[in-house]
Specification:
The complex is a heterodimer.
Chain A (H helix, E strand, L loop, with lengths): L1 H40 L14 E5 L5 H15 L3 E5 L5 H8 L8 E4 L2 H7 L10 H4 L7 E4 L2 E6 L3 E8 H6 L10 H13 L1 H4 L2 E3 L10 H7 L1 H11 L12 H13 L13 H9 L3 E7 L3 H4 L7 E4 L11 E6 L3 E4 L5 H16 L1 H8 L19 H11 L3 E4 L8 H16 L3 H19 L2
Parallel strand pairs in A: 1-2, 7-8, 10-12
Antiparallel strand pairs in A: 3-11, 4-5, 5-11, 6-8, 6-9, 6-10
Helix pairs in contact in A: 2-15, 9-17, 14-15, 17-18
Chain B lengths: L1 H33 L2 E2 L7 E2 L3 H8 L1 H32 L6 H9 L6 H16 L10 H30 L2 H9 L4 H30 L2 H6 L11 H11 L4 H27 L6
The chains are: A alpha/beta, B mainly alpha.
């Protein structure tokens, strides 16, 4: 009897320790798979630098392109035998994810920063890319992110945003794109559509959702315009103390967005990015502020029905204003990674930017639809990108992306909250909160 | 048998103990150390003295979060315990379907906090949308929304504890009081509640600490909106740590302060209610 008890006790405790170890085992498994996989294939690296022993771990910033990156990684592994792991952070969670991932033993070898402000946080982790093969592929040195004399990051996509228009609906309302050449025009059209909303069956703007999946369109992208025009007027590229010269224009534009959209302004805090897309695609609204990256979402409207307008806020030279073009996506290589992993990562980046498959995936409208700042950039089949190019060829001046100079994520978040608050109750006192979040908090956050 | 236990105790205790050290003791000590450091990731810490603590106290949002959390905790502590006690009283009567009701009341506890938060957010927003309102536009809605969610979730759990307590009171005590001419209220106040003090101790302790530690529901239901007015302590710490560049140390310092606060309050509360417990 005592023997059975003993065996039972042993079996039980074995179970316990096993279940405990199982937790750790799960974490380790991919690593083990990695090394053995690398070892078995490293003998035949096809045409690469001859060292396929390393592996790549890319922490991707863009959720909308996650599927394409996964496929591309698989193709690369098939071609070269080098393991590529792609993980994508949830929208708005990139910094959080990166912070916890980079402290791990299997840290990302390839990650992203959004520009000078993001770089300040991560510069101790950035491998100097100057002289690397990928750096030689850049079509202009402007697309390198410098930290002193070291090349900390390389842009891999140039993007453009504006107001995406459903021209079919605009036509039904009795207007064409050519009717809108300034903020005053836009306001007139939008308010006319709102006045006839019931009769037309659609609204002017999609809901300016202030949920985390969508609020960056306003606290970052829309906020770029007053910053851009102020920088232009003052002839600067960054500042420690923003004056808010064009805040009244920002307010006018925000008023236009929230009071002429599909829902009551008080409901905006609950609206998501998906809501906006759905409203646009199901023809509930004419205007949708977003960029070239959203082509996949809005393509269902039909190519012939899509157009794009600059975001006119009634500032600067509106007759020559173009769309907003720039980048906030820089690739950085983790310098604390193993040398062979760094090499593998550099090879992967080079392959993405030069190989047929890599460029096809990055540039084709069927996949990521990027404009890449590399010499091998392909003609795009992304309609929005082509519209953006038309504006440039017509001699319009693109609005620069100044938001990488915004002081911090905190600054954007506080501004976003203030905008939501104002949307629910549009008083001067609440706009004062927005102003404080824009101007006072800029100085406070820059000082930190 | 005793001998066997003596011989094999490391096998039984070892794994749990190791897990406790790895999962709790080590991170805890590291956390205290890190609160005196400037760092980005936990592997590159440089000590910077009391800086983090000073900055934590200068943060108006942190102090606001403290006030909001305290208010929230007081309200939920009272509501949950009173309602759970009442429900327990009802469900220990001889009525039909008691077990079914107990199960139904307990079930919300089985759903995780994040899911619960999002589900209730849909419910609240669905209702408020009829009045062109949304949960995140006013701290008042956020506060009461949180209160409803937490009550809904925790009442069932506390109810189970109270039911166990009620069933443990010897029937003859109440019977004797009844024969002595005590009415219902007198029996409740002078017999039932004094005998329930052990359960009340546990339940107030749980609701107090749960209230202060609340995170999941806060994150998913309001995320601190509008303008951080419904941000509670745990969420504030999380946002400080993860949301702000260069504030990781401050977040850590806040976490240590938070720990001291919760432990302190818990101990005071235990002492206060323990002293009221009666020996049968």
């Amino acid at each position: 009897m005592s023997k059975t008890k003993k065996i039972l006790a042993l079996a039980l405790s074995a179970c316990m320790s096993l279940s405990l170890l199982a937790g750790c085992g799960g974490e380790k498994a991919p690593n083990g798979g990695n090394t053995s996989g690398g070892g078995s294939t490293s003998g035949t690296p096809a045409g690469n630098d001859g060292s396929a022993a390393g592996s790549v771990y890319y922490l991707n910033f863009k959720p909308e392109q996650d599927g394409d990156w996964q496929e591309l990684a698989k193709l690369y592994t098939q071609e070269t035998g080098v393991e590529v792991k792609v993980q994508t952070a949830a929208s708005g969670q990139y910094e959080t994810t990166l912070m916890s991932e980079i402290a791990k033993t299997d840290a990302p070898t390839l990650f992203q920063v959004n520009g000078p402000v993001g770089l300040a946080n991560w510069k101790d982790y950035c491998y100097d890319l100057s002289g690397s093969k990928i750096a030689g592929e850049l079509s202009s040195d402007d697309f390198a992110l410098m930290d002193g004399s070291s090349m900390a990051g390389i842009a891999y996509v140039i993007e453009t945003y504006g107001i995406i228009v459903n021209t079919k609906l605009l036509d039904e309302a009795g207007y064409t794109l050519a009717d809108i050449k300034s903020f005053a025009d836009l306001k007139k059209v939008a308010e006319d559509i709102t006045a006839r909303k019931d009769e037309l069956g659609f609204a002017a703007f999609t809901s300016a959702g202030m949920d985390g999946s969508s609020d960056w369109r306003f606290k970052t992208h829309l906020a770029n315009l007053p910053i851009y025009f102020e920088y232009e007027a003052d002839g600067i590229g960054d500042t420690d103390a923003i004056k808010g010269t064009y805040l009244d224009n920002y307010r006018a534009m925000w008023d236009l967005y929230i009071n002429n959209c599909t829902c009551a302004p008080t409901l905006l805090s609950a609206k998501t990015g998906d809501d906006s897309v759905a409203e646009f695609v199901t023809e509930q609204a004419v205007f949708y502020q977003n960029g070239t990256w959203a082509y996949g979402d809005v393509a269902d409207v039909g190519e012939e029905n899509l157009g794009m307008l600059p975001i006119y806020i009634g500032a600067g030279d509106e007759a020559n204003q173009g769309l907003c073009t720039g980048t906030e996506n820089y690739w950085c290589v983790n310098k604390n990674a193993k040398p062979e992993d760094i090499q593998a990562t550099l090879d992967f980046m080079y392959w993405c930017a030069t190989s047929e498959t890599g460029l096809e995936y990055m540039c084709s409208g069927d996949h990521m639809g990027f404009v890449v700042p590399f010499k091998g950039n392909l003609e795009s089949s992304n309609l929005l990108v082509n519209i953006a190019n038309d504006y440039v060829s017509q001699g319009k001046t693109s609005v620069k992306w100044c938001f990488p100079t915004m002081p911090s994520e905190e600054w954007k978040n506080v501004l976003g909250s203030a905008l939501t608050n104002y949307a629910a109750d549009q008083t001067d006192a609440n706009w004062e909160t927005v102003r404080a979040a824009f101007v006072d908090n800029w100085a406070a956050e820059k000082a930190k | 048998m005793e001998k066997t236990i003596k011989r094999y105790f490391p096998i039984f205790l070892g794994p749990t103990f190791a897990a406790f050290i790895i999962g709790f003791i080590v991170p805890f000590l590291m956390g205290i150390y890190l609160s005196f450091c400037d760092f980005r990731t936990v592997i590159d810490a440089k000590p910077n003295g009391l800086d983090n603590y000073i900055r934590a106290f200068q943060d108006a949002d942190f102090l606001h979060a403290f006030g909001f959390t305290a208010l929230f905790t007081v309200v939920t502590l009272v509501l949950i315990n009173v309602i759970a006690f009442a429900v327990a009283m009802v469900l220990t009567r001889e009525i039909k379907g008691t077990n079914l009701f107990r199960t139904v009341f307990f079930m919300p506890n089985l759903i995780g906090g994040i899911v619960l938060g999002y589900v209730w957010q849909l419910i609240f927003n669905g209702i408020l949308a009829h009045f062109d309102l949304a949960l995140k536009i006013s701290a008042k809605y956020g506060f009461w929304g949180l209160v409803v969610v937490i009550c809904w979730q925790q009442i069932g759990y506390m109810m189970i504890i109270y039911i166990a307590g009620l069933q443990a009171i010897p029937g003859d005590l109440n019977e004797a009081a009844e024969i002595d001419g005590a009415n219902g209220w007198q029996r409740l106040w002078n017999v039932t509640i004094p005998n329930m003090m052990p359960s009340i101790t546990i339940c107030t302790f749980l609701t107090l600490t749960n209230g202060f530690k609340l995170f999941d529901q806060n994150l998913s239901l309001t995320a601190g909106e509008p303008m951080k007015q419904t941000e509670m302590l745990a969420l504030n710490i999380f946002n400080t740590f993860y949301g702000r560049v260069g504030y990781q140390g401050v977040g850590q310092a806040k976490a240590v302060l938070f720990f001291i606060l919760v432990v302190g309050l818990g101990l005071i509360q235990l002492k206060m209610t323990r002293s009221k417990e009666v020996q049968q």
